[in-house]
Amino acid sequence: MRVLVTNDDGVHAPGILELAGAMVKAGHDVVVAAPLIDMSGSGAALGPGHASGVAVERFELDGLADVPVFGVDGPPGMAVMAAHLGAFGDSPDIVASGINLGGNTGRSVLFSGTVGAALAAASFGLKGVAVSQVAGDPWHLATAGAFGAAAVSWVAEAPPRTVLNVNVPNVAFDQVRGVQAADLAQFGVVRTVLEGEEGGRLQLVLRDTEEELEAGTDSAVVRDGFVAVTSLVGPRAVDPSDAGPAIERDVLGRS
Q1: Quick one: which of 15, 58, 55, 10 has its CA closest to 36?
Q2: What is the domain range of residue 140?
Q3: pTM: predicted TM-score of the whole model, two decimal places
Q4: Quick check: 238 pLDDT over 90?
């Protein structure tokens, strides 16, 4: 299986080294392409590369001398598109994004570059896996790497455009309580809070979510020590189970 490993924290972040190593250990044909700098919060953005071209640098990751590694001057969505177009060799079958240092749960996954890379993969007809680990000290990245490799095996036989969002508790592998399918929570495990403005800059901080978390949602599942797995879909037109038809009748006047 040809696997593109990317992230939004940058090509030199520790999580991408762990995830790429897990993919190599699983026997996949691995290529790494990720932003040159931290592009967290970029969603599935591509950046302005269409107008100015995209700078690319070649690197080597410790312990992965045989894995081609590219730093891309753009967000992870651009790395995914470039890989799909053949910029780094054969187009991948699966995009594995992460390991993000911090959970990506709840509706805020819309803004995550880690999740955005997996959704970008789906938009190009590929399969995607986004892997994040909730914060802790010390980091147990080997645990997230193992479940990232497992998630790739789960989607290997799935239909094209399948995307899994995987959130892993920050514990040793043998302390994980299990794996559960989960819905998106209304809130993530952390929330962004505006503390004020200073020197013309908004002061934003992340704080633990204080709201009650609904059982069975990704935030609650990973908080309780399980790996939370959520199947996501990218942009699509509404279907009869959505609110769209009612909106079309009431707002747009369509019958």
Answers
A1: 10
A2: 2-187+213-250
A3: 0.89
A4: no
